[in-house]
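Exam revision sheet. Question 4 asks you to relate a sequence to its structure. Input first:
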Amino acid sequence: MQKDTIFTIGDIHGCSNELNELLKQWNPEKEQLILLGDLVDRGPQPYDVVRKVIQLQKDHGAIVLLGNHERMLLDWLDQPEFKKDYYYGQGGYETINSFFGSDITNHKEADEIAQLMKVQFKTELEFLETRPLYYEWEDFVFVHAGVNLNLEDWKNTSEKEFYWIRDEFHFGNNETNKTFIFGHTPTSILHKTEKKFDIWTSPCNTKICIDGGAVYGGYLHGMKVNKEGIVSTHSV
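Answer key, structure tokens:
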């Protein structure tokens, strides 16, 4: 059945309890679920979140986008010793220990951990590796970080920009006739007000950020939209 409403959720970062609570607002029969990426890192239960999301895709066709933190995890696995300090400091420490259910990072070298991870969590890692960069529906584009608005066609945005771009997108002129719903940048930064984690909308009303900084004590935001526009917002 064609679903005429989207329910999209911002950056989860291992906040499994908040995700489960927010999903109570979702009607799987009538609403297409889209997760904007950054399932992992920083928060307490990245592994639980990844397993839950894999099940949501399997059971309900959930669309799960690639976030920069998924990319960082995958890049670390390719060069574990070289990228250890950076990735561990960006919340990777919490992700790795969550996957193994112990503080393995304090007992084994990065190379050994990466090899174990590739063997023991092949399904989860293949899932993360195959995430799309954006999802276009009606006049909306769902994306982790944003797009390059200077291009003639925003779809030619580079892979890295889809999950890393910030200011050029936030403050660029949007002439695409699309409304972008994105995460990646905690809304307190866009509001320029510490601890103000409400949903942010650009002055032109065509860019909506729903990264409520859940892992920083803010909110996990969900938003329902149909082809007319925003139907409702939900925050945990």
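Marking note for examiners. The domain at 5-68+130-235 is CATH 3.60.21.10 (Purple Acid Phosphatase; chain A, domain 2).
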